[in-house]
Design goal:
The complex is a heterodimer of chains A (about 200) and B (about 475). Chain A is α/β, with parallel strands linked by helices. In chain A, about 35% of the residues lie in helices and about 15% in strands. Chain A contains nine helices and eight strands. Chain B is about 30% helix and about 15% strand. In chain B, helix 13 runs parallel beside helix 16. Chain B starts with a helix and ends in a 10-residue tail after the last helix. The chains are: A alpha/beta (about 200), B alpha/beta (about 475). At the A-B interface, helix 5, helix 7, helix 8 and helix 9 of A face helix 2, helix 3, helix 5, strand 8 and helix 11 of B.
Chain lengths: ~200, ~475
Amino acid sequence: MKQKFNVITSTCVPLPLENVDTDQIIPARFLKATTREESFFGDNLFRDWRYNADGTVNEKFVLNDPTYGGCILVAGKNFGSGSSREHAAWAIAGYGFRVVISSFFADIHKNNELNNFVLPVVVSEGFLAELFESIKQNPKMEVEVDLPRQTVTNKATGRSEHFEINGYKKHCLINGLDDIDFLVENQDKTVAWEQQQ
Amino acid sequence: MNTLFDKIWDKHVVQIVEDGPTQLYIDRLYCHEVTSPQAFDGMRARGLKCFRPDHIYCMPDHNTPTHDQDKPIEDPVSAKQVSTLAQNAKDFGLSHFGMMDPSNGIIHVVGPEKGLSLPGMTIVCGDSHTSTHGAMGAVAFGIGTSEVEMVLASQCILQQKPKSMRISINGQLQKGVTAKDVALYLMSQLTTSGATGYFVEYSGDVVKSMSMEGRLTLCNLSIEMGARGGFVAPDEVTFAYVKGKEFAPKGADWDKAVAYWKTLKSGDDAVFDKELVFDAKDIEPRITYGTNPGMGIGITEAIPTNAADAKSPEQGFQKALNYMGFKAGEKLLGKQVDYVFLGACTNGRIEDFRAFAAIAKGRKKADNVIAWLVPGSWAVDRQIREEGLDKILTEAGFEIRQPGCSACLAMNDDKIPAGKLSVSTSNRNFEGRQGPGSRTILCSPLVAAAAAVTGVITDPRTLL
């Protein structure tokens, strides 16, 4: 879970679709688990795209294509729209992705990724289009995501971009800390707020 | 600046973390069975107790069957999730409205109807449709399970302050056009990401004259435009709705509360990050044709002929039409329907049942349609019976089921079979949302009723 984050260099899995919703990332029928078994959610990541209705493997879907691999998922605009289900982030983490690159993320899902030590990296439309093209030309090309320097680099073209993350969350990811630790430590401030009301 | 959103948000700021998010105090946390078990497990693993247990209410709604709720749930996995919530509530000392409890129902229907969601509050739940409670004049938004654990542990959450948007809908809605149609219209104008990063204040003549049920429907669907939440400034309509509710303030506390609530409006000098204005005359009864809620048309219109007109990426537009089995440029009026679903946190309230009954009255359910009518709560069910709507619906060949989320996301037995076309008052038409392979057309209760009695997509205005 709390994998500390620093610099990640990896090949990518491309998913050049826009508006990928959390119902596709993990369908509702897999939300009935009462524990946080990431392997279970990872096994069912994109379930209805990975498998045909008869349960056979959909060879055409990118996760089933041995050409592509790595711990960076590259997705089209508005990734993670829809439901707030954190199971979607658990499925992404459980499958083994550490980074998701897109030009736009849905709000709740973005927070869910961060809270599970998966880094959502927002890049420009131009960078994303070029990255999809680079992966298409050479599926073994790598991307470097440097959290301390807040840069993402397409190593095929050398193009690099700065990405945004607030200093607090960056500190948490690099040091393996989470928000609950912080909030519990700050309970005196919460009590003080309550007393003012 | 000086928007109602600023007023409520700023009042709840405990601290702003250096180079980071805001620590925001949460007045109300709702927990349902799907997104909370891992949060309670996390609390146990850390050895924590709930910081403010009296601010938290739990109820199962997603897995609950819509028949025989007095018997054990047949699906053992669903049964375990529901019993886990009951056990967690007990272990952590939280209020819990279990299945068959007269207070049970969909969390977003129950909160407002019991007076647990009030103007000026901050409200969260591990559910994106928490935006519903914004209709009360509250800042309400969906969160993930880690964030549920934050609130259980500290009654606070860490969030970046969103930007603010005002959407005004002016003029007067035409006959047969409902709050749902307004929301579907807004989604098609803004797309499913048009309001991402924003909190929306709904305003204008249409919203001011809308009932609380209508406002709840409108705010419910804010997330489908990408907005974290949406709300309506509290007014006399709000106060009349809240007054006398079980958990609403009483006596002198009521007067004090109303005096405060009356201050909850955006200043005349308020500056929004974005302002949009629409005219009610442009809105007709609406339906969706694709696989996200933004892919919608007026019921008499044709599906756009190309992706650009649909404000959709090319690949997504074709993929959606292939999935739905529709053609670009095609009209959907007259298309045969297999299932009709009335319910969900979007349209499972008394006004929705009244609307459905108004069309069903004196008519019969079409033979080719299987209809699931699911009240949003037991309180709605009781009112349906008090008003005699059950008799009208039964005479027309409909059956009223027991409350829960039901076929909105098909976590219980209410699954639309693969390939079948469902006309649904729920909130999402994503691929497989109502069951693997199911095809969903989103619409208002009036459009759903018109389809249910004719067996095909029908303009409800021809039946009113």
